[in-house]
């Protein structure tokens, strides 16, 4: 099986790439834009993945190659691949769609009959469906008809905490937590799909997407923003702060009440899922900075993302949402100015006012009561800061 993986960063190497490379008979090709990283991968042909926690171990991923994601070689890899995956971040999907589209056009011109599945492994709702939209924008009608029959854009849920490794030179080693979860939508698969250890198929992926995004990602982001405001540097330090832990746990319980009502999750199982996530945040071996987890607040404050959507869901279902609201306020108060999105967010608040930002950035124009509540809480927070 020939696999092309866009994104040779920590998630690509430490999670997606590792599972795929371990599947028997896999030829794994990384595609990335960082030439020093590409050169190092090709020179070494292997890299270590260190799992940290109660049972520490180091495993080597071997037999891999790498190429530049905008090169002719990347287009050729799209033409001949049996599976394409991504680990690039949601905002980069539109960029790599151009290369994928060019490769698919060549496959279609060759009258390729073999099916190809493409899986975007990103922290977003229906990332592969978004990627399909970007790709189809660049295909003529004839090629779209062909692609609908032979190319599967398969949505996925991915979950593993992988903090960035400190690097002074190019270092391929990756540190990961023991927990990992990769679930894909069985209904979107075209043709047959290999039984890859560590990858599960689901007939109801939306439920698992929202469970992960509105529990783990909601809690993670809130821990980062509240931790930053309290002067903590890492997620572990923040979640060990009793006040922060209490707000984060209650917020995940509030979003959990929405998920239980919407999808019928077992309440006791979901409560255990929340506690497992909090334990993961406490892993002493993961030096995960709050500024890494809190980056790109404009995206995370979007209407469909981890802070606003569970808040609106709780509000509309007349459920408790006070702690989720605190998470939104903390994100609005986030001031790490090395992040361009933080700078832009604070400019918008200064120029337009927080109420307008809540309507435009967060999509809350139809929820004036929430806008008023968040705005008042934001002003109270700013007054005591």
Question: Short description, anyone?
Answer:
The protein is α/β, with parallel strands linked by helices and 385 residues long.
List the helices and strands and how they pair.
Blueprint: E1 2-6, H1 10-21, E2 27-32, H2 35-44, E3 46-51, E4 57-62, E5 64-68, H3 72-80, E6 83-86, H4 93-109, E7 116-120, H5 127-136, H6 141-150, E8 151-153, E9 156-159, E10 174-176, E11 181-185, E12 200-202, H7 205-229, H8 235-239, H9 242-263, H10 267-281, H11 290-293, H12 297-300, H13 308-316, H14 322-332, H15 340-352, H16 354-360, H17 368-384
Parallel strand pairs: 1-2, 1-6, 2-5, 3-10, 6-7, 7-8, 11-12
Antiparallel strand pairs: 3-4, 9-11
Helix pairs in contact: 3-4, 4-5, 7-9, 7-10, 7-14, 9-10, 9-13, 9-14, 14-17, 15-16, 16-17
Q: What would you note in describing this structure?
A:
By secondary structure, the protein is α/β, with parallel strands linked by helices. The protein has two domains: 2-203, NAD(P)-binding Rossmann-like Domain (Rossmann fold), CATH 3.40.50.720; 206-384, Orthogonal Bundle (N-(1-d-carboxylethyl)-l-norvaline Dehydrogenase, domain 2). Helix content is 52%, strand content 14%. The protein contains 17 helices and twelve strands. It has helices at 10-21, 35-44, 72-80, 93-109, 127-136, 141-150, 205-229, 235-239, 242-263, 267-281, 290-293, 297-300, 308-316, 322-332, 340-352, 354-360, 368-384, and strands at 2-6, 27-32, 46-51, 57-62, 64-68, 83-86, 116-120, 151-153, 156-159, 174-176, 181-185, 200-202. The strands form three sheets. A six-stranded parallel β-sheet has the order 5-2-1-6-7-8, sandwiched between helices. A three-stranded mixed β-sheet has the order 4-3-10. It has a three-stranded mixed β-sheet with strand order 9-11-12, covered by helices on one side. Helix 4 (93-109) links the parallel strand 6 and strand 7. Helix 16 (354-360) packs across helix 17 (368-384). The protein is globular.
């Amino acid at each position: 099986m020939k696999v092309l993986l866009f994104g040779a960063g920590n998630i690509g190497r430490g999670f997606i790439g590792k599972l795929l490379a371990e599947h028997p008979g896999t030829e794994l090709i990384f595609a990335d834009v960082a030439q020093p990283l590409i050169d190092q991968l090709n020179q070494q042909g292997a890299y270590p993945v260190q799992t940290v926690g109660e049972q520490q171990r180091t495993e080597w991923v071997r037999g891999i190659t790498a190429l530049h994601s905008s090169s002719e070689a990347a287009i050729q890899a799209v033409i001949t691949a049996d599976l394409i995956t991504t680990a690039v971040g949601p905002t980069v999907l539109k960029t790599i769609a151009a290369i994928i589209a060019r490769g698919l056009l060549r496959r279609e011109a060759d009258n390729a009959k073999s099916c190809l599945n493409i899986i975007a492994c990103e922290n977003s709702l229906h990332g592969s469906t978004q990627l399909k939209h970007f790709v189809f924008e660049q295909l003529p009608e004839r090629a779209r008809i062909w692609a609908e029959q032979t190319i599967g854009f398969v949505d996925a849920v991915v979950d593993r905490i992988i903090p960035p490794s400190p690097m002074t030179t190019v270092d391929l080693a990756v540190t990961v937590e023991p927990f990992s979860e990769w679930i894909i939508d069985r209904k979107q698969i075209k043709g047959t799909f290999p039984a890859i250890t560590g990858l599960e198929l689901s007939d109801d992926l939306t439920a698992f997407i929202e469970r992960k995004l509105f529990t783990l990602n909601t809690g993670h982001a809130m821990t980062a923003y509240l931790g930053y405001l309290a002067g903590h540097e890492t997620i572990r330090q923040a979640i060990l702060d009793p006040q922060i832990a209490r707000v984060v746990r209650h917020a995940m319980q509030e979003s959990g009440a929405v998920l239980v009502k919407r999808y019928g999750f077992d309440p006791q199982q979901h409560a255990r899922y929340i506690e497992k996530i909090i334990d993961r945040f406490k892993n002493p071996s993961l030096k995960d900075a709050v500024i890494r987890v809190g980056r790109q607040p404009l995206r995370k404050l979007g209407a469909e993302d981890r802070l606003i959507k569970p808040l609106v869901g709780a509000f509309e279902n007349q459920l408790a949402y006070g702690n989720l609201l605190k998470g939104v306020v903390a994100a609005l108060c986030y001031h790490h100015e090395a992040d361009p999105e933080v700078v832009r967010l604070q400019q918008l608040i200064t120029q337009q006012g927080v109420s307008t930002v809540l309507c435009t950035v967060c999509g809350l124009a139809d929820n004036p009561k929430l806008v008023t509540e968040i705005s008042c809480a934001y002003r109270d927070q700013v007054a005591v800061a």
